[in-house]
Write a structure and sequence with these properties.
The structure is a single chain. By secondary structure, this protein is α/β, with parallel strands linked by helices. The protein contains 9 helices and 17 strands. The chain has a 6-stranded parallel beta sheet, with helices on both faces. It has a 5-stranded mixed β-barrel with strand order 3-6-10-9-11. Helix 1 (about 160-175) runs parallel beside helix 2 and helix 6 packs parallel to helix 7.
Length: about 375
Amino acid sequence: MKKAIICKQVGDNYALDTSIINTHQPKAGDVAIFEVQDLGKHTRLQCVEGRNRHIYPEDKIMAVFGTRYATNQLEGYVPQGPRVEYHVLGQGGVIGEMKSIHTKYEEKGPTTLKLIGYATDSNGKVINTKYLLQKEVPFENQKPFGSKIILSIGGSMDSGKTTTAAFLCRGLSKANKKVVFAKLTGTVYTKDTDFVLDCGAKVTMDFSSFGFPSTYMCSKQEILNLYQNILHHLGREQPEYIVIEIADGLLQRETSFLLNDRQFMNTIDAVIYSDGNSTGALSGITMLQQIGVRPFALSGLFTAAPLLIEEVKKYTSIPILNLDALSARSILGYVEKANTEGVPSAAESHLGKPRNNELKSSTVAI
């Protein structure tokens, strides 16, 4: 049996209950055993050892129910009631019912599974990965003493947020600063955290470290609690900088309510914004202005094109940093300047005008 990485905290002392497959209503994080039926988009499974293993029809896999929001891939949910077939939503072992898929994957469709049974503990209860081996710490609006938190956000999926965060960590590390990284929201798959670790972060982790297969459709309080747990864990390293990434774009559900939450934004010392093109970068600045947030720098895929950089420069004085600039020791100067300016609480924007009208021309306001 191939065991998905989201099940890394599930031991071998479990029972397989096949009698409840038509009666148990699964929740996000519930562990189950499936048989692969037909291969579609997903042909591999990231397993507990971190390796991506190929899967084939008739293979047995251990995975968990969950949700997914991925604009460039697919959308899926925990099914309400039993189904004849289930779908692989994410390579890290997230299983559910697909609702929509990007047109580039329409012909392939999802990889389908048959539910064999649920993994249960010694009390006959279905095992759930959320906080399986940890105790949940409630949100306290506190960050580790002496640490500055930098938030990496972007306009959409694949806009360059993780690469921006990774090279920022590299630059801070080269400047002899102890920096750690966490991905707060998204769908389980350790490629991003592994990449940032390779770039120089002392420690990296994400929501799956606490058993979350994904964070899509979690309540705000649940994500705030998760954030506090991540900070408690990273704080043990006594880092000087903590880089936090939020998945997807400004319009995505969890990203939006975090950026608009006063308590969350009060913990943030600086924001860096990534986008894939020039109009997106300017639109993002406008949207962030409306909630009182000014990024200390812009980055992302658009910085790979000198012409796009020049387009954006015409309308904003916010520094634009490509990968070379992010990974240089001099990045510390940008970050330290941002630390002195601080980030106003997003909720404060509803009480008055944004702090700084950054765009140079109203003709590009979106």
